[in-house]
Amino acid sequence: MLAPERHAIILEEVSRQPAVSIRSLTERLGVSRETVRKDIERLAQENKLHQVRGGATGIRTHEPPMADRSQTNPEGKGRIGAYVTKTIPDGASVIVDSGSTTLAAAKALAAEKKDLLIFTNDLTIASVLAPAAAEVTLLGGRLDFSENATMGLDTLEHLARYNAEYALIGVGGMSARSLFTYFSLEGANLRHMMAERAQHPLILADSSKFNVVGQIAMKPLSVAATLVVDRELPKDIFEALQAQPVEVARA
């Protein structure tokens, strides 16, 4: 089998499932592990897939619908929400990103906290946190109906006026090679600014985001942050984070 044929099959496999192993590809292609490894390396260099230890994953160009994400790993997101509740005190000021994991954290805060000062671009999260808030500021901008959240330059400009003690930030994916990624440039820029505007940014990433690669790499953080996860990080991701100002906390 010629290399272009193998490459087409490998790309087909990573498009059909979250990750594919070198072992399964050797069985499918009938070639050696070394040949498959070199094929994956070549495709990764061409930005057609993402190489991970023992296999490959696809590069995602869009995020699954919110309804689907909310049903993914609810137990893990619940543990992250419980960690956030223990960390953030009553009366704190908090920037809250849109997303299913931040929504889980918002629900946990709403059940336990009071007198919070909330800044968020997510209309659903604003409503959820209202019972626990002394004040809610909804960041203006273009409404993304699929997320029920505001986006764009106006949202960035509005956010730039505020500082907060904490920020709750989601990511599209996380990998050793690309670290934190998202699916749009404006989404990545908004999350970066949320981290920059907070004294204590908390990056919330349940295990369904491990070795997921969005098409936009988020800018490196210039502030110290805490990555809150529900399971132990893969070794390669943990090692890659050692060079970043990021502390890892397992909920």
Automatic annotation (TrEMBL):
Alphabetized InterPro entries for the sequence: Carb_Metab_HTH_regulators (IPR050313), DeoR-like_C (IPR014036), DeoR_HTH (IPR001034), NagB/RpiA_transferase-like (IPR037171), Tscrpt_reg_HTH_DeoR_CS (IPR018356), WH-like_DNA-bd_sf (IPR036388), WH_DNA-bd_sf (IPR036390)
Keyword Transcription regulation: yes
Pfam families: DeoRC (PF00455), HTH_DeoR (PF08220)
Keyword match Coiled coil: no
Protein's name in the database: DeoR/GlpR transcriptional regulator
SMART domains the record matches: DeoRC, HTH_DEOR
Residue stretches in coiled coil: none
Gene3D superfamilies according to UniProt: 3.40.50.1360, Winged helix-like DNA-binding domain superfamily/Winged helix DNA-binding domain
Alphabetized UniProt keyword annotations: DNA-binding, Transcription, Transcription regulation
Listed GO MF terms: DNA binding; DNA-binding transcription factor activity
Region of interest (Disordered), ranges: 55-77
HTH deoR-type domain ranges (all copies): 3-58
